[in-house]
Please model this.
Amino acid sequence: MSKKIALNHLTRIEGHAHLVIDKKAGKVESCHLEVIESPRFFEALLRGRHFSDVAPIVARVCGVCSISHTMASLMATEKALNITPDPRVKVLRRLLSQGEILQSHLLQLYFMAAPDYLGIPSIFQLLNQRNDLFSRALRLKRTANRICEVVGGRAVHPVTTAVGGFSTLPETSELKILRQELVDALPDLETTVELFASFDFPEFSRPAEQVCLQQVGQYPLHSDRVISSCGIDQSVEQFKDSIDEYIVPHSTAKMARTERGHYSVGALSRVKNSFSQLSPMAQKVAAVLQMDPNTNNPYHGLKARLIEVIHFVEEAIHAIDDLLLHSFNSARATAMPKGGGQGIAAVEAPRGLLFHAYTYDQNGNLETADCIIPTAQNLASIEADIEALLPKLLDLADAELKRRVETLIRAYDPCLSCSTHQLQIAIK
Amino acid sequence: MKTRIGFFDFTGCEGCQLTVMNLENDLMQVLQLVEVVEFRELMSEEANKLDIAFIEGSITRKKDRTRLQEIRKRSKILVALGACADNGGVNLLANHEEVSTLRQQVYSSNAAHLLTETPLPLHKVVDVNYRIPGCPIDGREFLAVLQALILERDPELPNFAVCVECKLAEYPCSFDYGEICMGPITRAGCHAVCIDGGDRCRGCRGLVDNPRTSPYQKVLEEHGLTVQDILDQYRTFNIGEEL
Model:
């Protein structure tokens, strides 16, 4: 007997997708994650725009990762136009990215993923009986957003970021307050670790190539090197060239692979590949969460996200100390670039590797743009995981099967509002 | 009985819904007055009837029209949340090119599932009762609109230009830095956040009701801008369409 199980408009994820499973005579015939977001053609919209307009427009690809898109965009433009920002700019940009990863991870952990493990359809159910948990989630998220507001001017679509640096720098007094807020968040983080350590994570294992950036002496965020658990160590340009993006009939998001096949990106990849760069406190939390750095269990993406939260709060405090000790004045690039060129940059967005590649003409107007976003690189891995998991779930009632599969999809924290804007280099 | 509200999204970045979620300090109080009954991004629950539907994003496909009409039917009040829903926003940067050309450029394919129409703001498809402009929306303005609706009053948007808020805050004028600023014709309500951040106004909140466009155009021309430069400025957030 053939039976189709459809999960329409998957909930508690960013963006719209359906999951369609075909089962026949107790076997899985096919399983497709259908990305149904409507194409927005961002790369085409950018053509002809002046370099100073590109980042503010492309940030609108994604509200949750607008800072990552801004960072990748500015860095690609700076490479193309031969602009070298002050080294202090890098410290401040790193702090801004940390703020974004923290707000994204905390939103996902508490609001999207935790309800699966607490057996409720949404965290709003806890408003009255678990007010402590609900208000803790909001407090932590507020602190994360404060980093984005103090450094970026506002939490969604930053306004202080500019080609060459920043158009406005945070006030020393603001940085001091922010530092105190981060320190004050530590007890809430401890309770959060206790909560997630109490969750029963499903047993499941499927080895996958884990890809992330590599940054010498630091946990990866903004860098020119890409590494993978299969031993790849390449420049960002080389790796991006090796990505094959392809269209499948069931998705408006392109999928990505290399000649070695599909791969995964995101918090789990970063924690696995860069475990030794994590702060001592984050490594301790990894032990408490029983997170084996060699794990092949995609459900542990949640643990990886929480470990990163601990790491980035700690690192943000150190970054603020650094900024307070070595203040800098005007950060904005004053010299206007001459001539065009090509630039490729990558950042670690909350959900993993994000590439922006641009070419500019002699007047600094954009000729071509190409963005490869994290979830496109993860889609095939998510499908492969579901296919591997399904045979074990086929005896379950449909509702329970759906719940298990949705929990797996959420472990990846897919963000599909942007995953539709992949493309080949725009054709002139 | 609490007011039943829901959040929905179409073609957009979900940044306006996120801005609502970012009202952390006020959210606990808001939730004493309203019940969130549908919010796909954060909830698995669905609702039959809503008092207020806040809808983000533009409409680009037939099935999205149907979904929007269905939400309209079960909602007493429908509010366009943010620029994409209100006037098309950045999605309409594409409206000077054929959608099929864009599709070829981005996907090198015209496969059926990639087919879309020119993005539309919500009011081109259904009746919209109120609007909250901006890319993204201003969280405080969202609270003000919600408060008015709970009190069964008509929410009002400021009907003066960003320039006014900017001058009151005593920020230096962007034109003095040689920047092109849309502040003189853009609706206030954002507290000139971009100018505070050292950027200029890009007009994301749309035009004030009676903009004095011709003197403004002259200001732009005085700064040595071509018609194309001016059009590009208008176009980023689809202000050109309203003119």
Remarks:
- The first strand of chain B starts at residue 3 and ends at 9.
- The mean pLDDT of chain B is 88.
- Residues 54 and 79 of chain B are 5 Å apart (CA to CA).
